[in-house]
Amino acid sequence: MNESLSGPWQTRDALSTRRHDNTLATAHSSLAHYVHRLRQAHARGGIRAIEQVMREGRLPRALVEPYALLQPGRYTRTLVYRDEDMEVLVLGWGRGSRAPVHGHDGQDCCLMTVAGELEVEDYRLVAGGKAPGYALVERVGPRRTLLPGALDSRDALQDLHAVRPGARSGQAISLHVYCRPIDACLVYDPLHSHCELRQLRYDRAMSLADPASSRTSPSQAVQPTPGPLSRLWRTLFRGMRQVKETVKETLVPARVGEDSAKIAVKGMQHRYGNKVVALQDVNLNIRSGEFVCLLGPSGCGKSTLLYALAGHIRPTGGHVRLDGKEIQGPGPDRLLMFQEAALFPWLTVRQNLEFVLAARGLSKAERSERAQRFIRYVQLEGFENTLPHELSGGMRMRTALARALAVNSQVMLMDEPFGSLDAQTRQHMHELLQRVWMETHKTIVFVTHDVTEALMLANRVVVMAPRPGRILQDLEVRLPMPRGPDDPALVELARRIRVMLKASESMNGPGAPGERGVHHEGVAPGTKADGPRGVVGSVGAAGPRRTLAAPPLPGPEGGR
């Protein structure tokens, strides 16, 4: 084959696709038509039906090449179709590129070489490798060469492989079909016996109509060239259309089964002593390593749900489980962060960290080393011996975050921790928390009423509505991280969720008149202060009240 992918097909290209006479009968008018057939096959019979369609005949290079992005030294990923059940990518393999040893996140997939050649090396996992860290892999079998039209399919039980373009062609184009979207995968280093979780990003996302729209018909060729203003409007409308198409593919209903959940909330309801129905029939499953935002207006029960996960309140109905065990109270496997930093004012930054580590039983040397490591991680070097009142609000929250990370609980529960910060400092904390999650992949449940904040931070947004508190939508956000507040796709997602919240304001949930109260922010749920605040037109409070004590420091029980 000619080294340039734009060159003509050689004889071996045709030879590589010789099958029965009826295999070449299937003609595809476009890549959109081909993807449509794959969707029908997936609905009919899953991966085996997809494989059958892909074996029926080679996909013409001319239909796929406009979607491929070829760059020397790297391979590129172009998204052409994605929904909650299937993802289709076109990969361009530049000269010298190579995909490291990797798996496919336990899912079925098919790979078809469209142009050039691909070399595939298979590996087997010997020890470890189920999570980031130690992983021993070994190569199995000879290297395989996939000629144009060749298909390589893998199910969820198969092991690992590495891929690179063939030495003869130098470059290649391939089509990849996954039976569910994949956003991250484990990448293995055989030399150092190590693996890491890598977030997968698209180099570009294209509509299936993009290449066709760039071609002009003979009748269009004789039309006058549009002026600058006309071209500007066309560009703007095209960009808006692409953003809307992207939003359809990046905000989809989350589907998490109870069997695969680290945190499982089933049929939960909670009623306070003043007959306020804070939560009603809440069902939520959260996988290990997910960042989930509970989003909704004040009074929708999101803080009540968070306190139930922390073990600070016992719901009046339903079940709340962690790793399959009922949550009976606070524990060291969960840590709760509040809107205030809750630092001891008489202790320095270092001493605040070392205090909670001492409660965990660490030696003095271990406490000092770990405290310094996390102070450096949140970029507070030089402030180790500073008292909290000498720090800015953002620096106090960094200290609280460093303390939470030093404790190393499995689950972090965060109750609007950045709500009191100014906009610029909050943006810096968003960037820091994104980096923390991408590097540690802790399970985080974050409460907020800010739509943009939720979409920037989380890979799942649970939209809640009040009176009674309930879940409106559980949405998976499939945007690459890190994210910024001005990303066009994120702005459009925020608009859609605001419309959803606006519509929910006019919806009144069932219940008697005495049940349609709200939980007052800043008051501990379940206390006397959380009771009725008085009747309109009356003087004084309806009953005795007490102020909420400052939340204690996260300690060995993982409490507040």
Structure write-up:
The chain has helices at 11-15, 31-55, 61-64, 210-213, 218-221, 228-250, 302-310, 349-359, 364-377, 393-407, 423-440, 451-457, 488-505, and strands at 75-82, 87-93, 99-102, 109-116, 118-128, 133-146, 151-154, 160-165, 172-178, 184-189, 194-199, 204-205, 251-253, 263-271, 277-286, 291-295, 317-322, 325-326, 334-337, 411-415, 443-448, 460-465, 470-477. The N and C termini lie far apart (66 Å). The protein is built from 13 helices and 23 strands. 35% of the residues are buried. Helix 12 crosses helix 13 (488-505). It is globular. The protein is of the alpha+beta class.
Beta-strand fraction estimate = 25-35%
The CATH superfamily name of the domain at 11-209 is Jelly Rolls
Strand order of the largest sheet: 13-23-22-16-21-20-19
In the CATH scheme, what's the topology name of the domain at 11-209? Answer: Jelly Rolls
Which stretches are low in confidence, meaning pLDDT under 50 for 5 or more residues running?
1-25, 210-223, 243-247, 509-560
Structural class comes to alpha+beta
Query: What is the helix content?
Result: 25-40%
Main beta sheet strand tally, sense and closure: 7 strands, mixed
> What's the total number of strands?
23
Instruction: Give the terminus-to-terminus CA distance.
Output: 66 Å
